[in-house]
Design brief:
The complex is a heterodimer. By secondary structure, chain A is mainly alpha-helical. Chain A is about 70% helix and about 5% strand. Chain A has a two-stranded antiparallel ribbon. In chain A, strands 2-3 form a two-stranded antiparallel ribbon. By secondary structure, chain B is of the alpha/beta class. Chain B has 17 helices and 22 strands. Chain B has helices spanning about 55-60, 85-90, 105-110, 125-135, 150-165, 180-195, 210-215, 240-245, 310-315, 340-345, 355-360, 365-370, 385-400, 415-430, 445-460, 475-480, 505-510, and strands at about 15-25, 25-35, 40-45, 70-75, 75-80, 90-95, 170-175, 200-205, 220-225, 225-230, 270-280, 285-295, 300-305, 325-330, 335, 345-350, 380, 385, 435-440, 465-470, 485-490, 490-495. In chain B, the strands form five sheets. A six-stranded mixed sheet of chain B has the order 6-7-8-3-9-10, sandwiched between helices. In chain B, a hairpin with a 2-residue loop joins β1 (about 15-25) and β2. The chains are: A mainly alpha, B alpha/beta.
């Protein structure tokens, strides 16, 4: 008699297959719901495909969405390797955008100098924003999930205040944002700016740092087993702080790319949940830096689909619903990947767990 | 000794076990155990670690179900499917590690998960009920105090009161005095005698022979999961109990013989402890005034019942903790600080809990094997970590450890405990130029693996490395070590020459007795 048995490990290929099925199931569920609410699913599907991966405009949009998601997803993945959660990507994103905008607005010079300066200022601001949660985690064992999360609201309000108060646009008199930044990240392909390949490069670099530096090794060990880190005498506190600072810098860089490449102004609400969606990306990537790239692609696709559906009078919250559905089904798929049919050993035939 | 309540011949035992057996995959935890506790008596349950005491008590309290045998309660057969069944039947257990909610008050802890807790209630009602219970059973507690602010002895009183409030007639205490001060121990014993005087029964698990002699009426000894016998305490002596517990049939594997070209025992100690005292987070002294010299080319055994300072001693010797008082000298110099510095100075460490302290269970074999050498060439160079070199190292270690590994990225937790131990041992031997500290190195290994582990240690000794082995297995210590130190209550009771030492004498020292005429304390250098 055969039966299902849970194995402690799941091979990557099994996970991929299960996830593909999960995504297929979520597409079916979404289609069913749309059909039940009286929509022509075939027509919608055609529209969705042509306006996302089926057209140049759609692909440009995808790349624009992917750019910040790659960085915020990478930011959360770095802390996952340390066994921590940086829920504050949103706040660090805002601080990065503010820092970059501050340099862009008030320091004038050639773009080749100003842009790196903006990036530096952004990363510094992001690091400052996560410094307090990092120190509290390292020295007082304060849960970083709560501290990083709460600082998001502070950061969001801070940017609103800057954009509508001291830094408000005095040229056009618009009340919602600063004036247009004099420098911007040059465009590469349509509206896609150089931030996109840079973000890909940064994620690749992150993967290299994690796998081939002593720092990455220590983070890996400390995150996987606090007991072993203590046993080997690793400086766990210093690693907690450095991993969180790196995470903050990455999320802040996403803010800089967004303000200097896409939005060109600092405005309230501009983080647009990219910080939180980075958590989704990191969960989908399962702690692997390179897997952040396909995960960010999937997330960008969902965002894009949501916009297309909105133009067809489907509520904007559909993005959240689809994201939730995909996450739920992927989590189920990951668990299912652990199960295999086994035939109980009879006589001499013994099935080996691989 | 207080007079036990006399019972007529017709009174059945409170609890009787007939032929109880419990098996785990590949392990006999209990086999054919007979035991009875009568009303108005305190029964001592003795045995080494792993003798099956806890498993047996878990069967009695419904946490495990026996694979064979009967549980008879007041003369009637009983079956406990869940711990609640056992509680309802009047059996209460106080575990060695308290099961209280630290952030709750005493009253809240007492009433948690109790069917008699009033449905609608208030803090004042709970506290009043607790005060009443506390007076009825004679266990003074402060109902409004938060549990986390209480001392270990006070927490234990809360645990006992919680059990008694469920109308327990049989109280089982697992190592109740391990966390208590002598004063608290005396108070506990007074309360237990009062409980016994009402016709109730107590089973007390303890390693401390003095206390067993003091408080119990009868003693049952378990060895290797089986009942060795039951005696009236008045007929027992600590020597006899120690010998019964350990067993006479200790096999000595003689590895004392050194190879021809073995390095002689060094004249200067490799590591010296001077009046080293360790206090834990609760400020309790866990290692007390230990002065010790360990020389290169010798195997130093540490005997003692678990929890008597072995862990602290190994952590001191490997730099994981720093002493609260006293000094450590490594090769005559003040020791560096930190485990990494000790490892760099040539101190290897095989800890007790291999899987969680010496390994990262979820990471691959390669990552796990590199942990001692990732900071030096060829794996580490500058800031880099060379994965290919780490892989080569892992292959080398696996080869000498004689462990076949199909995939070096496989999580190390998927290896058997024995293979994990071999890999850790070989990894540590590579860096142990001066000292290797091994805690319970043969635990979880089969006989063949134990023998090869012992040969590893003997060969390290012959190379002039100092080896410290902590074990509960006296046979292992006597067969392997040159000298044996006995720990009890954080004190180094004595250091004996293993050629002349015998297990009975060590058993007595482990139980905290030094008065035996045969005890010879070797002068510490």
């Amino acid at each position: 008699m055969s039966r299902f048995q849970r194995f402690p490990t799941a091979p990557a290929r099994r996970i991929l297959v299960c996830r593909a099925i999960a995504i297929l199931v979520s597409v079916i569920v979404v289609s069913l719901l749309l059909a039940m609410s009286g929509r022509n699913v075939g027509e919608l599907a055609h529209l969705v495909l042509t306006s996302t991966i089926g057209s140049r405009f759609g692909l440009e949009d995808l790349a624009l969405f992917m750019t910040p998601l790659l960085l915020t997803g990478g930011a959360v993945t770095v802390t996952r390797r340390m066994g921590l959660w940086n829920i504050g990507g949103e706040g660090q994103f805002y601080l990065g955008a503010a820092g970059a905008a501050g340099v862009g607005l008030f320091i004038h010079g050639p773009a080749i100098l100003i842009l790196p300066l903006m990036a530096l200022a952004a990363m510094l601001c992001g690091m400052i924003w996560i410094l307090l949660p990092a120190l509290a985690r390292a020295f007082a064992d304060v849960n970083e999930i709560i501290t990083t999360l709460l600082l998001n609201f502070v950061a969001g309000l801070l940017v609103y205040w800057l954009a509508t108060g001291p830094w408000r646009d005095r040229v056009t008199g618009a009340l919602a944002s600063t004036e247009r930044l004099p420098v911007s990240i040059p465009d590469l392909w349509g509206v896609v700016h150089w931030g996109f390949p840079l973000a890909l490069l940064i994620v690749g670099g992150l993967a290299a740092i994690m796998s081939s530096t002593r720092w990455g090794y220590e983070v890996r060990i400390s995150g996987a087993s606090a007991g072993m880190a203590r046993y080997a005498g690793m400086p766990v506190r210093v690693r907690i702080i450095s991993a969180m600072l790196l995470s903050g810098a990455l999320a802040a860089l996403a803010g800089m790319f967004e303000v200097a490449g896409t939005v060109h102004r600092l405005q309230g609400g501009m983080a647009d949940n990219f910080g939180y969606l980075g958590i989704v990306v990191a969960v989908l990537a399962r702690g692997s830096c390179l897997a952040v790239i396909p995960a960010a692609f999937l997330m960008a696709l969902i965002l894009d689909v949501g916009i297309v559906l909105q133009t067809q009078q489907v509520a904007a919250t559909v993005v959240l619903a689809i994201t939730g559905l995909v996450l739920l089904l992927v989590a189920i798929a990951d668990e299912c990947a652990h199960y295999r049919v086994v035939t109980p050993a009879t006589g001499r035939t013994v099935r080996k767990a691989s | 000794m207080a007079d036990p309540v006399k019972q007529g011949n017709g009174t059945p035992p409170v609890l009787q076990l007939l032929g109880v057996s419990k098996y785990f995959p590949g392990v006999i935890a209990n086999e054919d155990v007979n035991l009875d506790v009568r009303p108005g008596e305190i029964l001592g349950l003795l045995g080494e670690n792993g003798a099956g005491k806890s498993t047996l008590m878990n069967v009695v309290t419904g946490i495990y179900q026996a694979d064979a045998g009967e549980i008879i309660l007041d003369g009637y057969g009983a079956e406990f499917a869940t711990p609640q069944d056992a509680i309802r039947a009047g059996i209460g257990m106080v575990h060695q590690h308290f099961k209280l909610v630290p952030a709750f008050t005493v009253a809240e802890n007492i009433h948690l998960g109790w069917s008699e807790t009033p449905k609608r209630t208030s803090r004042a009602v709970l506290e009043a009920r607790t005060r009443e219970l506390s007076e009825r059973f004679g266990f003074p507690v402060d109902p409004a105090a938060r549990v986390e602010t209480l001392s270990a002895g006070e927490q234990q009183r809360v645990e006992i009161l919680r059990v008694l409030s469920r109308e327990a007639r049989l109280l089982i205490l697992d190592e109740p005095t391990a966390v208590l001060t002598p004063q608290e121990t005396r108070e506990l014993f007074t309360a237990l005698r009062a409980f016994r005087a009402k016709g109730n029964a107590v089973i007390i698990i303890s390693h401390k022979l003095d206390e067993v002699m003091e408080i119990t009426d009868r003693v049952t000894v378990l060895r290797a999961g089986r009942n060795v016998g039951t005696w009236a305490t008045a007929d027992c002596s600590p020597n006899m109990l120690a010998a019964t517990m350990v067993g006479h049939d200790i096999q000595r594997q003689d590895l004392h013989a050194r190879s021809g070209d073995a390095a002689p025992v060094s004249t200067a100690p490799v590591i010296s402890l001077r009046d080293v005292t360790v206090r834990n987070d609760q400020n309790v002294v866990t290692l007390s005034d230990v002065t010790l010299d360990i020389f290169g080319g010798e195997i130093f055994g540490v005997a003692g019942v678990a929890g008597n300072g072995q862990r602290e001693l190994t952590e001191i010797l490997t730099g994981l903790i720093t002493p609260s008082a006293g000094t450590i000298l490594l090769d005559g110099q003040a020791a560096p600080s930190g485990a990494a510095a000790f490892a760099k100075a040539g101190v290897g460490h095989i800890p007790q809990d291999r899987l969680n302290s010496a390994l990262a269970p979820s990471l691959g074999i390669t990552d796990n094997m590199a942990v001692r050498e990732y900071d030096r060439a060829p794996i580490g160079s500058g800031v880099l970590y060379r994965a290919t070199e780490a892989h080569a190292l892992a292959e080398t270690i696996a080869e000498v450890a004689d462990v076949t590994i199909p995939d070096f990225s496989m999580p190390v937790r998927n290896l058997s405990g024995g293979n994990q131990q071999r890999l850790v041992a070989r990894r540590e031997m590579r860096i142990a130029r001066r000292l290797l500290v091994a805690a319970y190195p043969s635990r979880g290994l089969d006989i063949g693996a134990i023998a090869s582990m012992h040969r590893y240690f003997a060969s390290l000794r012959d190379e002039g490395v100092a080896v410290v082995i902590v074990s509960e297995d006296l046979g292992e210590l006597l067969g392997l070590s040159d000298r044996i130190g006995v720990l009890c209550g954080g004190r180094m009771m004595a250091v004996l020459d293993s050629i002349t030492a015998d297990s009975e004498e060590i058993g007595l020292l482990m139980g905290g007795r030094t008065s035996g005429a045969s005890v010879q304390t070797e002068a510490l250098t």
